């Protein structure tokens, strides 16, 4: 039983990138926290990050029949149609995370082309949102199994 934690462009810079928006926790720390929570909840967590949309698409395909995916698509959320189609194409439930409250920011961040095909959406909770999203993925997966 495996969950994919997938982070998109620029999230490798977490910790130093715009701390007012994204805090000072590094991506490695986020991955460690989500992996630890996964252990408590009985799932393995595989972590991946890419700055390239096609690689994110490949990662989603590889996880198509896993328990689910926690994904921060970064800016691709706002215009990444190939990413959206990949989420739509796979069986595994995908919960989208944004660290910042995108609705309190520039207008171009208010649109998500990916959100309509996700199993859930978390924004504005800081990096804690990743833990919320993991819990939501497991709840959605349990619902599907019935
Ligand atoms: C982000 C929000 C996006 O608008 C931005 O492009 C990011 C990070 C977030 O986690 O708040 O890269 O996804």
Describe the protein's architecture and organization.
- This protein is α/β, with parallel strands linked by helices and 146 residues long.
- The protein has one domain: Dehydroquinase, class II (Rossmann fold, 3-Layer(aba) Sandwich).
- Helices cover 38% and strands 18% of the residues.
- The radius of gyration is 14 Å and the shape is globular.
- 1,3,4-trihydroxy-5-OXO-cyclohexanecarboxylic acid binds next to loops.
Notable traits:
binds 1,3,4-trihydroxy-5-OXO-cyclohexanecarboxylic acid, 146 residues, alpha/beta, 5 helices, Rossmann fold
Cα-based radius of gyration, to the nearest Å: 14 Å
Largest sheet, in brief, is:
5 strands, parallel
Number of domains: 1
Second-tier CATH architecture: 3-Layer(aba) Sandwich
Number of separate helices:
5
Shape: globular
Q: How many β-strand runs?
A: 5
**Distance linking N and C termini:** 16 Å
In sequence order, what are the helices and strands, one letter per element? EHHEHEHEEH
Strand content: 15-25%
**Strand order across the largest sheet:** 2-1-3-4-5
Tell me which ligands are bound.
1,3,4-trihydroxy-5-OXO-cyclohexanecarboxylic acid
Instruction: Report the CATH C-level class.
Output: Alpha Beta
Mean pLDDT: 97
Low-confidence stretches: none
What name is given to the CATH topology? Rossmann fold
Structural class, judged by helices and strands?
Answer: alpha/beta
What percentage of residues falls in helices of 4 or more residues? Answer: 25-40%
CATH superfamily grouping: Dehydroquinase, class II
């Amino acid at each position: 039983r495996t969950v994919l934690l997938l982070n998109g462009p620029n999230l490798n810079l977490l910790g130093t990138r715009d701390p007012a928006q994204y805090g000072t926790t590094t991506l490695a720390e986020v991955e460690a926290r989500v992996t630890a929570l996964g252990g408590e909840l009985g799932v393995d967590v595989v972590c991946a990050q890419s700055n390239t949309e096609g690689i994110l698409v490949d990662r989603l395909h590889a996880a198509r029949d896993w328990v689910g995916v926690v994904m921060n698509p970064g800016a691709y959320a706002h215009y990444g149609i190939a990413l959206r189609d990949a989420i739509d194409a796979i069986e595994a439930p995908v919960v989208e995370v944004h660290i910042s409250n995108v609705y309190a920011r520039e207008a171009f961040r208010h649109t998500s082309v990916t959100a309509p095909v996700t199993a859930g959406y978390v924004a504005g909770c800081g990096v804690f949102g990743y833990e919320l999203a993991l819990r939501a993925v497991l709840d959605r997966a349990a619902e599907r199994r019935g």
